[in-house]
Specification:
Rossmann fold, two-stranded parallel sheet, binds tryptophan, Tyrosyl-Transfer RNA Synthetase, 13 helices, globular, 3-stranded parallel sheet, 2 domains, 54% helix
Length: 333
């Protein structure tokens, strides 16, 4: 059942690599909070990942592993609609139509496109260019009101809004115009090696990233190597980005106020801070890993989840598409 009284939230994550502590704290912990008050759609946006070359067998496994990681992070499969983007064909259909209402100039201005095409000059494909249009389709299909994403997606979300407004102006009220949802604490977890950079699963330095499936000893090791500074005092200030990052992790995972956390470390050294942060990470990662393993051993259950998710998503998506087709002037079928 979909709850049609609640406001709609849509978010997506690409099934590449494995989930980082940054994703968990920055996205999944918040998603879990939202399921009470909103009708949430959480999609594994597999089609977006194809803008990068994938090995078919590995990709299929990663997608399923990602679903298990979504579930391991505690998202409720009844309250939320959890599904693979490619299972609801309306996404690609709407993306094509919206392509025809999006300008080359707009897409050329997307900083992520510019970054990615600079970094991967050997594969600047058209999908990379129209990536934000598929994202707009994801969002607009469900008449989404709010989209919880990081700052790096703000420009894409602006574009989705502009496309929605443009379409509504031409054809009359069709899409809701989505707003970005900025979480309450908005904890952004930074690289353990370069604490001025966001923690990213594509970081080449593996010591910079904690993965939710890392073993305990790996976590302890990475934390020991975490970059701090030479002030040797645990203070919450921008001159100490490494320490601040560890405080953010601690405060997010313990769900304690940052101030209380800072106070509780008063007079302690960096060794103690790193040790306690490692401990609280392990406390969270352990049950995650155990649930993950259970889900991965139970492929029937996973299939059940993604099938019913796709069915529920399709129910809403197909209604929107019917309306869009009719408004655009396609002959009804
Ligand atoms: N582009 C997003 C990212 O890389 C993923 C994404 C695809 C998304 N479609 C979406 C996020 C719709 C929010 C809503 O993070």
């Amino acid at each position: 059942m979909l709850n049609q009284q609640q406001k709609v939230i849509f978010s997506g994550a690409q099934p590449t690599g494995s989930m980082t502590l940054g994703n968990y704290i920055g996205a999944f912990q918040n998603w879990k909070q939202l399921e009470k008050d909103y009708q949430c759609y959480y999609s594994i946006v597999d089609l977006h990942s194809l803008t990068v070359k994938q090995d078919p067998e590995t990709f299929r496994n990663t997608c399923l592993s990602f679903l298990a990681q979504y579930l391991a992070s505690g998202l409720d499969t009844e309250k939320n609609v959890i599904f693979f983007q490619s299972h609801v064909r309306e996404h690609t259909e709407l993306a094509w139509l919206l392509n025809c209402y999006t300008y080359m100039g707009e897409l050329s201005r997307m900083t992520q496109f510019k970054d990615k095409s600079e970094r991967h000059q050997e594969n600047i494909n058209a999908g990379l260019f129209t990536y934000p249009v598929l994202m707009a389709a994801d969002i607009l299909l469900y008449k989404t009101n709010l989209v919880p994403v990081g700052e790096d997606q703000r420009q894409h979300l602006e574009l989705s809004r502009n496309i929605a407004i443009r379409f509504n102006n031409i054809f009359g009220e069709t899409f809701a115009v989505p707003d970005i949802y900025v979480g309450k604490q908005g904890a952004k977890i930074m690289s353990l090696q370069e604490p001025n950079k966001k923690m990213s699963k594509s970081d080449e330095n593996q010591n910079a990233v904690i993965y939710m499936l890392d073993d305990d000893d790996v976590i302890v090791k990475k934390l020991k190597k975490a970059v701090t500074d030479s002030y040797n005092e645990i203070l919450d200030r921008p001159e100490q980005p490494g320490v601040q990052n560890l405080l953010s992790i601690y405060s997010a995972l313990s769900r304690k106020d940052r101030e209380d956390v800072v106070n509780s470390f008063e007079g302690k050294g960096y060794g103690a801070l790193k040790k306690e942060v490692a401990e609280i990470i392990i406390e969270n990662v352990k049950p995650f890993r155990e649930k993950y393993r259970l889900y991965m051993e139970n492929s029937d259950y996973l299939e059940n989840v993604y099938r019913s998710g796709a069915d529920r998503a399709r129910e809403a998506a197909s209604k929107t598409m019917e309306d869009v087709r009719e408004k655009i002037g396609l002959v009804s079928f």
